[in-house]
């Protein structure tokens, strides 16, 4: 079961920048940009061409802001901007809450101070289990006792990197060949469980006496033990794995704690940890080294040990276990960053939009505000008048945005972990933050309205 060999696969290379598909995409992007500019430019132009000049002048003389139709259009655009910003902010907030929940998931192992590196026993010289075992034993034994290195082990697949499945039959129990229980399969060697700090719950670990030719042994995780032996007492029983019902039986010698072997949002499944020494046909091993300090300090010792064992081989994928766990969250982190960028841009556009519309409104109503002040209105009442208008638009946009977020929440449901689509904390934080930003955007035009000169406005009237 060599998981690194992929036979008969074609490797596709990226298309060159001069390919027809690339040219088509560029032409489409250019046409889209030009079409968007024309569309957004021609709509206000046509609106202006259809306007009644006499009516506009009469409305302008009374201090109206471009007519009722123009104000209605601007108000609709502001409400639309705010509602879209709310939907994106709620989506980003839900994903952020979900990501935070994932980072608090109990892994079942300790990734700190652990270095990992992949080693493959490649070449004709490693055509036997004895040769493969000599290589891996030599590398692992070569770095044991090195200052700063605490424990060393290896596994065919690291936690959070996925799982290889197999089926199992409990010896002496009735077997339904059509519904065999599924187990994950990982072969481990050395002090793997100690290096990863995976607790041994019952039984024992592998020893050097569990060699090729000795009776096969296996270790189950707690979920696997409950699945195969629901009444307990898994230690000492024998199972057969794989499609062959007559495969060599494996005796259960230990039970270890559950580990997140796939994505962090997938519950732990049943897992069988085979003895890599007895399954040495798998020629790839991920070496794990637990150190007392920074895990990178073990790289030199590991390379030196490999050179002593076989200088023709090289280590691959050298990284810390924390980086391995982080890689399992890479796609979520990218999606989270992307939606937060979109949400920030939408919020900025909404704030700029509401500020611009209110600034234009204040300019158009300068005479009105001056008359109000001349007739005894306070600057506070004028400021509240402007703020009330902006906040009313914002509340309308907030209501539409929340309704849209709830309606479209099912699109995010599959990407959330331990977070409801209707999460009160997220909705409340978005609403409060949006209103604060809207008030800030309204203050500048509102303050300008309070500085209108009443005398100049009365002379103009």
Explain this structure.
This protein is α+β, with helices and mostly antiparallel strands and 461 residues long. It has 2 domains: 64-105 and 330-460, no CATH class; 122-312, no CATH class. Helix content is 51%, strand content 15%. It has 14 helices and 11 strands. It has a 6-stranded mixed beta barrel. A hairpin with an 8-residue loop joins strand 7 and strand 8. The longest helix has 37 residues, at 67-103. The model is unreliable at 1-17 and 59-66 (pLDDT under 50).
Search tags:
461 residues, disordered N terminus, alpha+beta, elongated, 14 helices, single chain, 6-stranded mixed beta barrel, 11 strands
Give the topology:
Elements: H1 20-49, H2 53-61, H3 67-103, E1 114-120, H4 129-143, E2 149-155, E3 164-170, E4 182-190, H5 192-196, E5 200-203, E6 217-221, H6 222-228, E7 238-241, E8 250-256, E9 271-275, E10 284-291, H7 299-309, E11 316-320, H8 321-328, H9 330-364, H10 366-374, H11 379-407, H12 410-413, H13 424-450, H14 454-460
Parallel strand pairs: 4-9, 6-8
Antiparallel strand pairs: 1-10, 1-11, 2-4, 2-10, 3-4, 3-7, 5-8, 6-9, 7-8
Helix pairs in contact: 3-9, 3-11, 3-13, 4-7, 9-11, 9-13, 10-14, 11-13
């Amino acid at each position: 079961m060599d998981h690194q060999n992929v036979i008969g696969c074609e490797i596709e290379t990226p298309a060159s920048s001069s390919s027809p598909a690339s040219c088509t995409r560029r032409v489409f992007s250019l046409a889209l940009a030009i079409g968007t500019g024309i569309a957004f430019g021609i709509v206000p132009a046509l609106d202006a061409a259809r306007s009644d000049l006499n009516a506009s002048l009469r409305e302008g003389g009374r201090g109206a802001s471009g007519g009722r139709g123009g104000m209605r259009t601007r108000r609709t655009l502001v409400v639309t901007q705010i509602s879209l910003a709310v939907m994106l902010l709620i989506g980003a907030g839900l994903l952020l809450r979900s990501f935070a929940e994932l980072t608090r998931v109990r892994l079942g192992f300790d990734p700190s101070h652990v270095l990992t590196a992949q080693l493959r026993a490649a070449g004709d010289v490693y055509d036997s289990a004895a040769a493969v075992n000599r290589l891996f034993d030599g590398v692992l034994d070569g770095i044991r006792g090195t200052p700063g290195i605490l424990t060393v082990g290896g596994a065919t697949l690291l936690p959070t990197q996925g799982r290889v499945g197999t089926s199992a039959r409990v010896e002496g129990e009735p077997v339904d060949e059509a519904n065999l229980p599924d187990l994950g399969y990982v072969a481990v060697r050395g002090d793997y469980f100690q290096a990863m700090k995976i607790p041994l719950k019952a039984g024992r670990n592998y020893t050097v006496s569990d060699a090729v030719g000795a009776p096969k042994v296996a270790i189950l995780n707690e979920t696997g033990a409950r699945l195969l032996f629901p009444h307990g007492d898994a230690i000492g029983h024998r199972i057969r794995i794989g499609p062959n019902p007559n495969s060599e039986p494996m005796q259960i010698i230990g039970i270890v704690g559950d580990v997140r072997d796939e994505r962090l949002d997938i519950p732990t499944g049943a897992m069988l940890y085979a003895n890599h020494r007895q399954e040495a046909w798998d020629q790839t091993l991920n070496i794990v080294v637990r150190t007392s300090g920074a895990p990178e300090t073990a790289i030199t010792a590991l390379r030196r040990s490999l050179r002593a064992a076989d200088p023709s081989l090289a280590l691959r994928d050298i990284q810390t276990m924390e980086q391995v766990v982080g890689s399992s969250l890479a796609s979520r982190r990218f999606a989270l960053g992307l939606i937060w960028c979109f949400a920030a841009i939408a919020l900025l556009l909404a704030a700029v939009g509401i500020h611009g519309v209110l600034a234009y409104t204040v300019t158009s109503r300068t005479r009105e505000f001056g008359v109000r002040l001349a007739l005894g209105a306070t600057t506070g009442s004028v400021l509240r008048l402007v703020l009330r208008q902006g906040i009313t638009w914002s509340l309308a946009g907030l209501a539409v945005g929340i309704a849209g977020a709830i309606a479209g929440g099912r699109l995010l449901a599959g990407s959330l972990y331990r977070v409801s689509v209707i999460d009160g904390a997220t909705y409340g934080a978005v609403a409060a933050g949006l209103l604060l930003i809207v008030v800030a955007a309204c203050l500048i035009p509102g303050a300008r309205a309070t500085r209108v000169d009443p005398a100049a406005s009365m002379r103009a009237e």
